[in-house]
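Risk register update: the risk that structure generation would not scale has been downgraded. Supporting records follow, first protein first.
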Amino acid sequence: MTLYRKYRPQTFADFVNQKAIKTTIQNQIISGKIPHAYLFTGPRGVGKTTMARLIAKALNCEKRSPETYEPCNACLSCEEITKGISLDMDEKDAASNRGIDEIRSLKDTVRFSPTRSRYKIIIIDEAHMLTTPAFNALLKTLEEPPLHVVFVLATTEPQKLPETIISRCQRYDFKKVSLGEVVAHLKAVSEQENVSIGDDVLLAIARRSEGYLRDALSLLGQVIALGGAGREITFEEAELVIPRSYKDRAEELLSLIELARAREAFALIEEIIDAGVQSEQFLFDCIDCIRERLITALDDDKTRLRSLKMLDIFIKRAEDIKRTSFLPQLPLELAVIECIGKENPSNDNIKIKTAVLETKTLTLDRIKSQWKNLIETLRTTHTALTVALSSCTPLRMEGNRLILGFKFRFHYNMIKDDKNRLFLENVLLQMFNEKLIIGGEVIAEDQTLATEPKLPLDINQAGESSVEEVFGIV
């Protein structure tokens, strides 16, 4: 059995954190003033469903005195709830039972009195997953349930619940467990498991769990599996299980960016990706490092502004992850180019002659005047793109969109490719210091839109036109 199931709290005293919520519910149990519906919100693994089960135990415990709130865990009702076989506690997962038919069945269930207990407890986990018709079907029952029924709705996304549902429940917001409380709980569990684990390992597990106690217990179970009863587990062994943080490599990348050493930055990114690190996770590590730098440099205007620019670039590139899944390192590489371009327009990979802006508004004439410069810049770094751009012309500006006119559809399709388009957009950003979105269309030689080609007069003409469409005029 996994540790988080084995050590699920069976009394309020065992429940970790959420002191205010515990105190309120304990007082309700003693006074007998039980609301007909609870709504527990908060992140995963902090005890929402566990608290719902404790309420079910306390309300239906056969040996609990009216002056106390703790269940006895010895009577038949407590034992059945602990084992999950109680007929008077119905726990539903709304992620897999989310339709109106399930809610109609539930409404039929609550009409009947409990089998042998005082209350029938209905727990709906991940309540935000219910469909709109299901919510509507639940609404009337939730508003005026039978006196013997108590609803407990648990969700990680309360913003997805209809206001009509929220207003009919007593809402309690669960918080993440503090680092110290996670470490203390892990230490107590490891002692009960008769395993010796150093404080540095427990601290690493607690930090990696980020306040989610269930995640922490799952990681502890994996660490314990490395050793055995009575054997001490070292930090080096625990590192085989605890997911590594690459914040040290992220700091190294940021330092290379500040030194404008693009080649070394690209090599580091390649090394990270080859090691199997998810580019999305590494981007988040970089963002976290920049955020920490920003916080420590609040009184340093220069460092603060530089960190803000870098943070903005990395956040925007994190949004490109799904669009560039075909080349996972691309968002990181583009972030490096943009950051170095803002600090030092000339980098180790692409030598761009930066155009000095005379006005804040970028005009089509200015782009046309620098077009040959752009092609020469790309000639040694992206030959295919150079050929495509040589056969096109900047047509017009539509806000921040630059529309290019292509004579041949083959070249137009090349620019439509996300990889090439993003590359070109970033080169233009460094050249003109203004973000442009590239668009395009196929045009005829007289700058009008191309029409469907006429049928060739003979087979020789057909061959010549096909070659011209792909390679241009020779």
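Supporting record for the second protein:
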Amino acid sequence: MIDLNHSNRQRLFKLSQTSPLVREAASRVLYDSPFVRELMAEGVGVTVDWTLVGPRSMRKINRQQRGIDSETDILSFPARQMIRGQPAAPIENWEYLETGGGRRTILLGDLVISPSRVADQAEELGHGFEREFTFLVIHGLLHLLGYRHDTEEEEKEMNALQDRFMQSLIEIPCGFVAITGRPNVGKSTLLNQLSNRTLAITTDKPQTTRQAVRSVLTSADYQVALLDTPGLHQPKNALGKAMMKATSSAVAQADVLAVMIDASWSPFAGSLERRVIEQAQAAGKAVVLVINKVDRAPKENILPLIKVYDDLYKLDAYVPVSALGNDGIERLLHELVRLLPVRRRLFDPEDETNQTEKMLAAELIRREILLQTKEEVPYGTTVLIDRFEEEGEGEREVFIDALIYCAKKTHKQIIVGKGGERIKAIGLASRRAIETMLDARVHLSLFVKVKLGWQDRPSDLMDAGLMERE
């Protein structure tokens, strides 16, 4: 619980105008503080007192408290010594205040603000009063938490925190984009290209992607959460149904739908593409047609493909690209950002993907199985990470035990190979890929187990993370 006690000792600016700004800034800064979260976990709240004063009062306070005979915008008076967000000494029992109902709170300190000075500064800087006022409250709260700007290093840290909190409050194009299309059309390659890293494995085999993978692209001007979905197909087992459910859920979640087709296809809108487009348009979502692999198809193929979809649906944008060749990607990103709703950021800047290192390691192992077994083991395997541990204090060292499930006994024989040669090759290539991803030394152990019918057993699909638990 955050308690904000206010007092207004000036007449030009009303509390109804400033209180919401203080409340919002305090929520962003204080809920982000590990110290405050630890207190709240123990049932202890935090209190900040803040006061609005006029120019003459602010000048007087500044002269009395700091020896500076001039008006300023905000002054912070910490209740205790704090160092970079943590108390310099343990909190004593007498510092806990009773607020009634048996609830306790800790006073962080006082903020004194001159809204007239804030308004003048906002005009000088060319932005609004609300932006300047919010920024200064964030600045003052960070001082209460023990952040300073006396040295270059301290100033850099404090500026970074202020920028992060301010960015979280600014409205920009922000939302979800679902990338859909048939298997092997290039969706995962596009996701990896936009993300500038490998988040979804890619092979020349259809249905390589089994889950909706999220990658968050964040800049000062936009935030795009990309959802790479399993390929559109007619499911034949429980695994296929789970994959199509993931695709349907991603389309429902998305603000913009990007439908990917192959530039070499005949000018015809397939039933699977039509189904997802109609689902999206019925829900009022923008739809972009992404024509991929333009570097491998005659240029005269492009316009007829666009015309077919334009005649049927009048989509919001048509973008030819080569995901593998990184051609047309910037224009596609521009179109996606243009169609997103304008809102506050949905994710922290550090939140780049929903794929954990453990999940990515499993996918890299599965990729090597697909690559090295060719057509012999099409889709009958999945990988579960049984152990993922870091040891040592120097160079990062990760120990991974991975269990490979096969749907048939013959699949196990193929994966293991004669004299264990193939499983050794899979392990070596997987280990190198995981070491590159983790920037660490990796010890990888692979175990192959036959599990008949796992693709049709919900419990196994849940264990593999391919189906949500009820």
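The chain has three domains: 2-169, 171-344, 357-463. On this basis the risk owner (M.S.) recommends closing the item.
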